[in-house]
Amino acid sequence: MNVLALIKSRRSIRKYKKQIPSDRIIHSVLEAGRWAPSGLNNQPWRFFVVKDNAAKNKLASFTKYSRVIKEAPLIIVICLNLKDSYHREKDLMAIGAYIQNMLLQAHASGLGACWLGEILNKKEEVAHGLCLPKGFELVAVVSLGYPDEFIKAGKRRPLKGSIIPEKS
Ligand SMILES: Cc1cc2nc3c(=O)[nH]c(=O)nc-3n(C[C@H](O)[C@H](O)[C@H](O)COP(=O)(O)O)c2cc1C
Q1: Taking residues 124-133, what's their average pLDDT?
Q2: Which one of 14, 23, 97, 140 has the minimum C-beta count within 10 Å?
């Protein structure tokens, strides 16, 4: 599949089969993230993978998307490493690129994933609940697994709708 077709066919997947992706596939997803661009190449992202049910249930208790977290075989918790941070907005944009790289590699490998941002409403509680070391700030959670849902066509506004009109 060419890159544009891959980008266009990726959807957020919120229901998963029980099958756990192999370490090789998980590694390829993490590797795709690692090659994201970042300002000054500072690579401000850090992550950990959650597989065990107790930790997933704890994480799930901090978001209304708890079902997605509980049912996904794998969760990637993504943080900003404050020590590496040089410009907050740029660092967060770099982490956005990091996450998108992972979502695309997951899709290319036949996995489904969902970027879960709502959990940030309880960022402090998550940090405390998961005993996140000082110096790391939660940015997002990504759920991952083999899709078990009907994949709908995506919706986007037409390209023209994103153009800033010229001043008249
Ligand atoms: C920053 C960000 C936060 C998001 N947070 C959530 C979330 O908390 N829960 C959820 O189900 N989907 C979440 N999503 C997924 C979006 O709902 C989804 O990308 C959007 O509806 C477009 O659908 P698509 O990814 O299938 O093309 C988030 C996406 C982004 C980029």
Answers
A1: 96
A2: 23
In a domain, 167, yes or no: no
Give the Å distance between the CA of 167 and the centre of ligand 1. 33
State yes or no: pLDDT of 168 exceeds 80.
no
Counting every residue written for the chain, the total comes to: 168
- CATH number of the domain where residue 43 is located: 3.40.109.10
**Number of other residues whose CB lies within 10 A of the CB of residue 117:** 14
Q: What is the pLDDT of residue 1?
A: 78
Number of domains in the chain: 1
**Residue tagged 């192999």 (tokens):** 22
Is the pLDDT at 127 greater than 80? The verdict is yes
> CB under 6 Å to ligand 1: residues?
11-12, 14, 65, 114-118, 154
Distance 24 CA to ligand 1 centre (A): 26
Tens digit of pLDDT for each residue in 17-28?
A: 999 999 999 999
pLDDT for 101 equals 98
Gap from CA of 149 to ligand 1 centroid (Å): 16
In the 3-class helix/strand/coil scheme, how is 39-104 assigned residue by residue?
Answer: HHHCCCEEEEEECCHHHHHHHHCCCCCHHHHHHCCEEEEEEEECCCCCCHHHHHHHHHHHHHHHHH
Q: Which domain holds residue 82?
A: 10-150
